């Protein structure tokens, strides 16, 4: 929280995106007990347990609520399921369905019943966490959530959503607006329930041309930030527009986020420039953590040397992958903390 407030710490705080996940045997155990992935998210007892697992094992400086960005479309009536080996599956939304989708979700109350279970988990996690461990909440950015709603599954380049945006700009804008408004409500509820700060994941920011980046990434995230701050002026919000490249500068200047999550392709000299505007988080390539050894140590040292003079939260440049050895996470913490 200090670093998000603009302070520098000689040893940067560290957490890992997807730190509660399949690389941990205790996660796989709980996941089996829960049944489906969404049952894990919607059963507070299980969500609390898996959120705590990486904190107990590694003592990260921050924990992140165990949930998924797709609980928002799920709670908005576009039911989501997760298939082994395929990831999320949704019924693709057609342009003619957007009016109904918007009308049915004009108030937070439409989502409240389902997401109450996530908010219960937040309160439970805060009660179990050590006082000095930050609890992060999150949501998906409207663009990234919309890509899954439109394609109905993971794709390599989100061409279906890009095409939808060009063919049906009004319906697409209406979708982004309603996603932004309900996501802002959701973040406020998470902050009220006990999270210390929130992160907005825009994992697919990197596939848009500059005009679309402005319209579909910058503006909707600004809408979320403004809406949250209108109710909670001190809210700390980390923006993570993965793959945004040169557009990171505009995103930092225009969205109003407190801090920037950097993916591993961001050059460290450019990262230092961005760090003059806002605190930064990142940005080790997750495959260095899989490889371990010198590849890991060298990667960590480069990131810490480049960003160590300013406010920096150490993280990967994207989520940890299931093939990561637990011993390499231990190596990472030893290298950073000494
Ligand atoms: O960071 C954390 O530890 C918090 C939990 C978290 C998950 N997903 C758990 C999860 C968070 C913050 C997310 C965000 C999320 N979900 C994003 C944005 C961040 C990113 O990683 O890009 C996106 C795009 C999703 C959508 C999603 N959820 C996909 C595409 C998948 C399938 C991925 C895969 O590798 O199978 C998921 C499932 C998911 N969400 C898992 C976890 C731990 C794996 C589920 C399992 O146990 O089978």
- Mean of the pLDDT scores? 98
Percent helix, as a range, is: 40-55%
Q: What percentage of amino acids are in beta strands? A: 5-15%
How would you classify the quaternary structure?
Answer: single chain
Number of strands: 9
Query: Quick one: biggest sheet?
Result: 7 strands, parallel
**Head-to-tail CA distance between termini:** 21 Å
- Topology order in helix (H) and strand (E) letters: HHHEHEEHHEHHHEHEHEHEHHEH
CATH architecture: Alpha-Beta Barrel
CATH fold-type name: TIM Barrel
How many independent structural domains?
1
Put simply, the count of helices is 15
Unreliable stretches, pLDDT < 50, 5 or more residues?
Answer: none
Bound molecules: coproporphyrinogen III
SS class: alpha/beta
